[in-house]
Amino acid sequence: MAFNEKVSLAMLYLIRYNMAMPNIIEQLAAEREALLAQLQSIDRLRRGSLSRQVFARKQAGQDHPQGPYFVLQGFHKGKKFSQRVPAAQAEQCQQQVNNYKRFQELADQCVTVTDQLTQLAQGQPESKKNSSRRKSSRPASRKPKLS
Fold first, then answer.
1. Distance between CA atoms of 117 and 26, rounded to whole angstroms?
2. Assigned domain for 94 exists
3. CA–CA–CA angle 122, 125, 131 (5° rounding)
4. Roughly how many angstroms between the first and final C-alpha of the chain, as a whole number?
5. 13: domain range?
6. Which pTM value belongs to this model?
């Protein structure tokens, strides 16, 4: 391939890249707005997980099931919490736990999209996975010089 053809291909690539950039930014901005709308639609949530417990009580040599009992358990600010939930509220509580998980997923996606927008606005390409590290000009370990 001749030099002029290489230059022409490089220029064509740059023109297409620069023309596509506003479309990508607009698409990412629209995606972020949609994520924010979904986040805003979640109005009730509970962190943790809901478990169903049944206990067996022996009476006159036979096991009699007790329950079910529902317990909401999780961690908040580094501390474990545990709370009994009445059976009548268990389904609603499970939906709120599911809402919390969905909120976390949406928030993570929103951070990713916003990071991409920030990088594009600053003209930085996305970082590649497993990129090679710069090698230091100094050796990793040095032995002391003896005089």
1. 9
2. yes
3. 135
4. 59
5. 3-121
6. 0.65
Number of domains in the chain: 1
16-21 long-range contacts (CB < 8 A, ≥24 apart) are 21/120
List per-residue pLDDT tens for the chain, 147 residues long.
555 555 555 555 555 555 556 688 889 999 999 999 999 999 999 999 999 998 888 888 888 888 899 999 999 999 999 999 999 999 999 999 999 999 999 999 999 999 999 998 887 655 555 555 555 555 555 666 665
Assign 56 to helix, strand or coil.
strand
Helix axes 3-41, 90-121, angle to 10 degrees: 150
Burial 68-77 (b: 16+ CB within 10 A, else e): eebebebeee
- Residue 77 tokens read as 């600010």
The one-letter amino acid code at 112 reads T
